Amino acid sequence: MRHYTGLEMGDKSLTVIFHPYHLITYTPSDSISKVSAMEISVIGNTPFSHQMATVTRDTELVLLPQDTRAYNSMAMLDLDKQIETLIKCQLISEDEVKALCSKAREILLEESNVQQVDSPVTVCGDIHGQFYDLKELFKVGGNVPETNYLFLGDFVDRGFYSVETFLLLLALKVRYPDRITLIRGNHESRQITQVYGFYDECLRKYGTITVWKYCTDVFDYLSLSALIEGKIFCVHGGLSPSIQTLDQIRAIDRKQEVPHDGPMCDLLWSDPEDTQGWGVSPRGAGFLFGSDVVAQFNATNNIEKICRAHQLVMEGYKWHFNETLLTVWSAPNYCYRCGNVAAILELNENLESDFTIFEAAPQDTRDMAPQRRQQPDYFL
C-alpha cells in the first residue's frame, strides 16, 4: 500500500492511500469518501514507484472518470486471470494474495454475523482442501455466478490443496460478492491450521508463512452464520447454551481468533446428539445439543430448520430431529481414504430441498500431492 500526502485546495492536507482496488481519501475533517482507483490522477513529478511521495501545491489533481471505468475493467480482468490460474490448481503470486485478501476483508467487513442469503441457493458443507473435489462440486452444482452458493466453512486443512481451494473461493467472493457467501468453520483458525496442514502447506508452497498470515487475517472477517430467506439458519457447527436468539449472534465481535470457549466457539464446534438438553462434547470444544434445544431455538427465532456441516456423513447428508436440523458434507472420500460420498443442498425459490450426491474426482484428473508429515487422526 502506497501513501501520497501533500497540499491541495489551499492549505488543506490530503492523504491518498492507493492499492490495486480502490483509493480512499482522508481530509483534515476526518470525513472519509471512497472513490474508484484511478479516479484521481496525479499529474506532475510524483513517482508512483516511491513508497512515499509528496503532492505539492504545484501538483495538479484531476478527476478522470473515463480512467475509472478503464481501471475497473482492468482490475476485473486481473481478477479473472487469477481465477483462471487458480482453477488450474496453480498458485498466484504473494503480492496477488495480499491484494486479494485486502479486498476480501473490505467486502466481508460489510457482512453481518448472521448474513442474509436469498434463494435459490446451493448450500455446501466442508471442503477441507480437496480442490479437485471442489471442481467436481462446481461441475454438478453449476459455476459461479450462474449458481448462488453458500459455503458453511472448513475450506482448509486435511486435503492437499488448501491454498488453492481457499484462494479460489475468496477470488470468486471478491469477483461475485452477491453470488457466493462464505461463513467460518472451526478450521478457519490460526491455532487449528498450525496442526492440521494449512500452515505447513503455505510454508511449503510459498517458502514463507506470509500467505498463511494474509489468509488467517481474512478468517477473522468471515460471517459466523447465515439466514436463508429468514427461515433456514445456517452455521458450521451448531448451537450454544449462551445463545437463545439471532440478535445475540449479531452482537458478537467476530473479528478475532476463535476463542477456546464461549458462544462464538460453540457456533463453530458444537454437534447434535440424540438426547435432550446439553452435553459435553468429545471434541474438547463446543457442546452436544439435543432435539429439545433445536425445537426451542427454532421456535424462538421463527425459523423452520437449521442447516450445518462439521461432521462426516457417509451418505453426504443426514436429517436429524424430524427434519428440523440437517448436516451437509461436501468432501467426498474424506482425507482420500474414508470412502464416503458428498452432497450439496439445492434450495429453490420456495425453499424446497433437493440433494445432489457426488463422488470424488477421478484419480486421473488429480495431481499427485507431495508427502507431508503425519497429521492427527482425530476428525475435527
Question: Looking at this structure, what is the CATH superfamily of the largest domain?
Answer: Metallo-dependent phosphatases
Number of domains: 2
Low-confidence stretches: 1-71, 376-380
Per the CATH scheme, the topology name of the largest domain is Purple Acid Phosphatase, chain A, domain 2
Largest sheet: 6 strands, mixed
Q: Strand order, main sheet: write it out.
A: 8-12-13-17-19-18
N-end to C-end Cα span? 37 Å
Query: In CATH's first tier, which class of the largest domain applies?
Result: Alpha Beta
Number of helices: 10
Residue-averaged pLDDT, rounded? 84
**What is the CATH architecture term of the largest domain?**
4-Layer Sandwich
- Return the structural class: alpha/beta
Strand percentage lies at 15-25%
Mind telling me the C-alpha Rg? 23 Å
Helix content: 25-40%
Tell me the number of strands.
Answer: 21
What's the shape? globular
Cofactor: Mn(2+)
Organism: Timema douglasi
EC number: 3.1.3.16
Domain Serine/threonine specific protein phosphatases: 183-188
